[in-house]
Amino acid sequence: MNGISLPVVHPAFEKLKNSGRLLHLAAGGLILAHAVSHFNQPQSSPLYIGCLLLIAVDIFILVFAGRNILITLPRINLFFRLIEFLFFLGIGITMLFSKSWWVGSVHILLSAAYCYLFYCEKKMLTDEYLAIHHTGISIPALPEHKFFIWSNINGIDAHYDHITISTSHQKSYHFSLRKNLAFEELDQIHEFCRHYLGVGS
């Protein structure tokens, strides 16, 4: 009896996906505002301002014209998230060196938030799976997946289109499946239940 891995719809992952465009829009707006604030400053570099405007425009194009790109090509999303992180980090460090403590600290916090988003969105490329092994059950979660050994599992309610895991901690995890189970897969889950939980399903 081999382990089985099931692609699932995780509510937290879906919420992050749905908020991705809004977060890109916020970053693009902040970058644009930063560029505009440098227009009338005598020490500002036209090249620097031009780069900021180019990044902001690219992000806006991604948000408004390429909304399907974020879904079909998630690595493009990660690339822009990395740019946003580096931008806020660079501005934060520059402001701290200029002794603009409040502005610098806000940008450093923003860079940390976008770094966390990058990490979570990178996990979504590979970790949106529920896996049933001989040692226990692995459940996708943010920021780290959860693993329950069989002694911590009270029951598994598996159907062709969804699955619910009940744990000994009085918690229940319900997931819709991205594709319906084949009969053999459902039977394999029932076999795990018979073997480790002593129940028929």
Record the SSE blueprint.
Layout (H helix, E strand, L loop, with lengths): L3 E6 L1 H27 L8 H19 L4 H4 L1 H24 L3 H23 L5 E4 L3 E4 L6 E4 L3 E6 L3 E6 L4 E6 L5 H15 L4
What features would you describe in this structure?
- This protein is α+β, with helices and mostly antiparallel strands and 201 residues long.
- The longest helix is centred in the N-terminal third of the chain and has 27 residues, at 11-37.
- The protein is elongated.
- Strand 3 and strand 4 (146-149) form a beta hairpin.
- The chain has helices at 11-37, 46-64, 69-72, 74-97, 101-123, 183-197; strands spanning 4-9, 129-132, 136-139, 146-149, 153-158, 162-167, 172-177.
- Strands 4-3-2-1-7-6-5 form a 7-stranded antiparallel beta sheet.
- It is built from 6 helices and 7 strands.
- 56% of the residues lie in helices and 18% in strands.
List keywords for this structure.
elongated, alpha+beta, 56% helix, 201 residues, seven-stranded antiparallel sheet
Number of strands: 7
Give the rounded overall mean pLDDT.
83
Backbone structural class: alpha+beta
Number of helices: 6
What is the share of helical residues? Answer: 55-70%
Order of helices and strands: EHHHHHEEEEEEH
Instruction: Write out the strand line-up for the largest beta sheet, numbering strands in chain order.
Output: 4-3-2-1-7-6-5
Low-confidence stretches: none
What proportion of the residues form beta strands (DSSP E)? 15-25%
Radius of gyration: 23 Å
Please outline the major beta sheet.
Answer: 7 strands, antiparallel
CA-CA gap between termini: 16 Å
State the shape. Answer: elongated
